[in-house]
Amino acid sequence: MSLALKPYQSAALLALASYLKECHRLGDVDTAFIKARKEQYLFVEGISGIESIPHVCLRIPTGGGKTLVACHAVGTLLQEWKQADRGIVLWLAPTNIIVEQTLRALRARKHPYRQALETATDGPIEVLTASEALSLSPATVATSTVIIVATMAAFRVDETEGRKVYDDNSTLSGHFSGRSAKELSELEPFPGASRPKYSLANLLAMSRPVIIVDEAHRFSTGLSFQTLGRFSPAVILELSATPDKQKWDTNVLHRTSAYELKSDSMIKLPLFMQESPHWEESLRDALLKRAELEAEALAQERAGGQYLRPILLLQAQKSNEPLTVEFLETYLTEKSGVPKEWVAVEYKNRADLESVDISSPTCSIRVIITVDKLKEGWDCPFAYVLCSVRDSKSATAVEQLLGRVLRMPGAKKQAKASLNKAYIYVTGEFARCVKQLEDALVESGFTLGEVRQILQTKLNLPSNDAMRELFERKQAPAQRGERFSVPQLTLFAEGKAEPLEPEQFLSSAWKLSECTATLSQTEFEPEPPRGITAELDITERGQLDIQKLAERMAQYSFEGFIVGQETTYSLAVWLDRHIKEHRIPQTQKVFFCQKVLEYLVQTRGLTLETLAGQRMRLRAAIEHKIAEHIESAMREQAQVMLFDTPQTNLQVSAERVFTFDPDAYPVNKPHPNISEFRKHYYPEIELMNSEEVPCARFLESDEAKVKFWVRNIPQRERTSFWLPLPNGYKFYPDFIAALDNGKTLVIEYKGAHLIDNPEERDKERVGKLWAESSKGECLFIYANQTDLIQQVTAQLRR
Fold this sequence. Notes:
Blueprint: H1 7-26, H2 29-37, E1 55-59, H3 66-81, E2 88-93, H4 96-107, H5 112-120, E3 125-129, H6 138-143, E4 145-151, H7 181-185, H8 200-207, E5 210-214, H9 222-229, E6 235-240, E7 252-255, H10 258-263, E8 271-276, H11 279-302, E9 311-315, H12 325-335, E10 343-347, E11 350-351, E12 367-370, E13 383-388, H13 396-406, E14 422-427, H14 430-443, H15 448-454, E15 455-457, H16 465-473, E16 485-487, E17 490-493, E18 496-499, H17 540-556, H18 568-578, H19 586-602, H20 608-613, H21 615-644, E19 650-651, E20 657-659, H22 692-700, E21 706-711, E22 723-724, E23 730-731, E24 735-739, E25 744-749, H23 758-772, E26 778-783, H24 788-796
Parallel strand pairs: 1-6, 1-7, 2-4, 2-5, 3-4, 5-6, 8-14, 8-15, 9-12, 9-13, 10-12, 13-14, 25-26
Antiparallel strand pairs: 10-11, 16-20, 17-18, 17-19, 21-24, 22-23, 24-25
């Protein structure tokens, strides 16, 4: 069963694709990164082989599905960067255990990871170990995407002797036939001969592989990068929860926040923590909490929910301390009344979980005792409670098990609120325990600011009513249970009102096959650019990098193409398969692509061989042309539906509303210093720029008469309010406010330099239409800093 990407996973992949496109457009990976991040990044200097290639990191916290993202990224890296249908991918994992688990998942055709690979790439897939790759045939490389899964240790530069990947191997000799003298001269030579070694290392270097580094922080050292540089990679993608900037510079292209994982029900949050001075109290409370959760899970299952059996992870002391695994097992079964079949041990020679399906309803395990960690890569979303009887001064003791209780069963929000949280019971001095847990969460990929929002400690509310009211008033409206709903713009048809979607602006009568199928020289240039147009000065080193980039782009453009075997129809079918536009029927898309190809061959005089060789760039050009045609058609239809005819079928009322989920606000970059914003609906706020902050401050003022407000997060369809735009996109206004008088205020706040932008004015037109259709219940303001207060005041007086 395939796994659909979560919004934050799609955002990470979109950031990667956009960056790679900018690399091609600018011809310089450094400049493209600065544009992508809007800030200088830490460039990896002086490592031979990777000076001028994209080398970036996607930072995703523990429990965020890094492997699934990596599978989809394979297609993005091959197609958007190498401009190839297939290629060799070197997938590096930190340990042999993780390598084995990755191999099993990528080889199993029904596994979601394998299905993600097949969705993202084109053609057959071969998944190999480093040893199996020693017998890799040229035919397999020519027809398949080859993924070699290994540890970094299998390729260490300092241990070349005896490593077969560097040995001459006649089985691989066929890969070196027909290669240019220049290519062969760049490879490691065979001693005493005028040819290169026929080694797997040389094959990789000649193939310019895509390299994926899983859990990159666990081996990001200078030595590791020297190893990677030896293979002349085309691109390096790191995935990590905690990139290690102390050991080696890292290039974090995109960061996923804990709030995003929580909003998409990937992890259990918040974390409830309770400290007790004595281990017996911690263990007793942990057992009681586990039993309480199981009762909730049974009630949820009886009501139609999924099967859950909450599990307690119990962390014992080491064998030279009193609270050993054996002692706690005896204590549980003889003094706490826990049935023996409920208890499993994972420590030293005890491996009670071996070959056990912990999620099966026939499994009886409810308590797992360990010391340092469970089997690496072991996953158990049923683990809800963590109890540590170790009074350690280090976060490591807790961090090693923390990830086990974070993952949400089925990545789905549970009906019972208690089953959406994780529970941690620790023994020791309270302040130190809190610090340990904070450090452990940071090690799992969360920021300290996020940790202090999601970590709940046991508090005794004041008994005095006035003091209790003061405490509760400090909670955000969402935490107090306030409901925040916003009327949607709906289309009344066939006796019912449904939210108006942008897709409804594409008339069923419109056909892509009837649109102009031409590409000018500006729209598609058959030769890739050899120069550079950049916004920054290019250094002498940068000029050298650009030359290398242009050489490699020329090589990639023909990888996987067999000269003379393409026809106009087969190339059109290939273009249809790779153009991600699902609003157009396949027959129309293929026909349109054929017309474009015929125009390029017959009118512009380009050969089919040239077009096939540069089909990735051609795909991008046709994709852009199709998008232009669709936008033009949608604007025409939207003008009729929204503005040219009486709008008796458009409604905005309390009957169809968007409701902000009090438990889902996917902040990516939290705004600092939020203490002044007491009326924000959520306890966190998405980052605001210097022009948006004054607007937020005004909403906080008595003059605005606001009950509470939200900084609306763009591109979050499920958790944010949006309105349809004529161009087919969705418009996410900056601020949504519930007023004291029961009305809704929506503000689209623009800097002075954007206020008259034609595309931005579409937002104003649709926003005003939404407000007018509400019969005075909704207010819309399109404003900048100079006239915001005047506009709000005027609207409130109506």
